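Ticket #746: bound-state structure for fe (iii) ion.
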Amino acid sequence: MLHRNYQIEGIVQGVGFRPFIYQIAKKHNLKGFVLNNSTGVEISIEGTKEHIKAFENDLKLKLPPLARIDFLNKKDKALENFQDFKIIKSEHKDTKYSLISPDFAMCPECYKEMFDKNNRRYQYFFTNCTNCGPRYSIVNTVPYDRPNTSMNEFNMCEECLAEYENPDDRRYHAQPISCPKCGPQLFLKKMNGEVLATNNEAIDLLATLIKQGHIVCLKGMGGFHLICDAKNEKTISTLREKKKRPTKPFAIMFKDIQAIEEICQLSVEEREKICSNQRPIVLVKKDNKQFNLSLLIAPNIDRLGVFLAYTPLHVLLLEKLQMPIIATSANHSGEPIITNEKDLKDKLGHIVEFYLDYNRQILNASDDSVMQVLGGKELIMRASRGVTPISYRYETATNQKILAIGAHQKNAIALYINNQIILSPYIGDLDNISTVDFFKKTLENFKRFYDFEPDVIVGDKHPLYETTHWAKKQGKPFFQVQHHFAHIAATMFEHKLDEDVLGIAWDGTGYGDDGSIWGGEFFVANKTTYKRVLSFEPFSLLGGDASIKDIRRIPLSMILDIKEPSNHDFIFSLFTHTELNLLKQIHTKQINSPKCSAVGRLFDAVAVICGICDKVTYDGESGLLLENLYDKNIKETYNFFIKEDLIRYKHTIKDMIEDKEPRVIASKFINTLVKIIEEVSTMYRLKVLVSGGVFQNRTLLEKLILSIPKLYFQNKTPINDGGIALGQLTNYLALNSDKKVFLNNE
Ligand code: ZN
Ligand code: ZN
Ligand code: FE
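RESOLUTION: The complex was predicted; output attached.
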């Protein structure tokens, strides 16, 4: 007989881990206990050596679907002669490290029950179990027990309690369980608060309103959705007008995968991702012949953001509707997703007449995650519901608590505590007070979850970022990491690389070490430091930020830089006389015209030359439009060349204008970018890493995957600025826990 004790860390709370332990302990005739503690789970078992071995084998191979073991410490102890195997109630300690799981989509078993007339949860809109349902959105603090969630207001009925207490039940210790008798209620309301219907009748009436062409709101898992019929042109154009969102694509929610496949071409991997328990929005290719939804959904692009109903409430609504719907985060343009009635009335009262609410609070907001799948790998554009908070075990010598505050756009924060790195859900662009408040609230939440108080703050080098101002007011050591290096550091972290690499970071903007705007970077880098070995020839952003929206100014600025400009007429013709004269003066005198070398802006310039876009209304628009024009039969490139550590391209604007045909220009341009990376890669015998918003461009990245033998890019963490906090954090850790020689020792 042996007594063996285990300390386990990872995602082991609220995921059916203890009942699983209970079951395998019983199966192998072991006595002892399992309990949740502040760091994870503790197990003690007594039995024969063989039985313990069999137990350990099951522990390794048969984990419940949502569980993950990051760390396991075992030791043998003196026999205590346990009489049976028990699940012991949670232990509370001062320090709290146990990890919080993201929210997950409804599981197949719950789905079956919800459509089973004989089940007591037939048509029940909050059906969930240990393997599915809300987590992050309802948790107030750890440990993840019902009193620490927003389900604390609802007392379980006898039947629910029996399930909750039965270790053999799928709902054993599933914190948010309820049933029609004891759970939260639905209310369909008019904007003035008048209740029109409740519970299942509310879903029916909501469906009717959508069919009639109304724009409605529905409280989902991590916030409200704005919803309307995906075929109703009139409603969609009203929505675009009222939301001041002229062209940015809307995501479409479907009832089932068959409905998606009727109008989109899916790869096996895309299909799997769409159906996974994360249920993200996946950008897939429209089947133009079959596409029968409104063209206003994603104007002029061949991609469509699709996802499946993921909560029982969404499932019931779509079952009623039998047609796809636009389901977009309910918010005021650019602001965080709305989670409560009051904000809904204040901010969307002018758009929406009806909303479906329920009386369980969303404590932590999360948006829908957004991904693409390419070459069988994920490309994460927004990590939120179903994906984050995500944690990584990362052992270092430091016992500091570290907070990384990310970038300005697509902000997310990351923490380091007790050998864990935790990435928060997507927060947003910190351009307005609401999003800055959301940043602060997210931080407060994580502080509360983990009793976290940072010793050090790590952020971007940009002197004017909101995060920089904030960090400087905290009275803590503040360490700043260059933006594009943070992109590469995040990629190195994800691929566990600890060597010199060729890091290529291309995006729309980021503060460079020389004070100019970078974003076309080639670094030789390692975990601790970097050297900028090559970049794009800079141009002036005429009028600063004005150029970022009014992108006509970008090719104008470039053509004015060329000594003997010929055939500039086309570019000039895009402006009025007055505009042109003013901009020429701005260019000559370089008034408010910061230098910029970002590849993202090059895409803007090319989109203007193609004549397909002169104002950008959402991030990444020009890239998507150019991709739409890409013709794989065109193999030519433009004649970029490298001189004095700079990639020279301005002279090719003339060639682009001469080419005239948008399809030709766009294809040659993307081919050129691939060729540049190919050529530079051969100059360095190093692993090639790419990161930054530009690589969300599917055409570009797919071509690179084919032409660079071993290309590293992020597929578990966001490839855009959503991954910056991870790079900042891991760079700080590398510098402070293992002392390495600096590459460019300054
Ligand atoms: Zn379930
Ligand atoms: Zn109940
Ligand atoms: Fe960036």
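RESOLUTION NOTES: The longest helix spans residues 662-683.
TICKET STATUS: resolved
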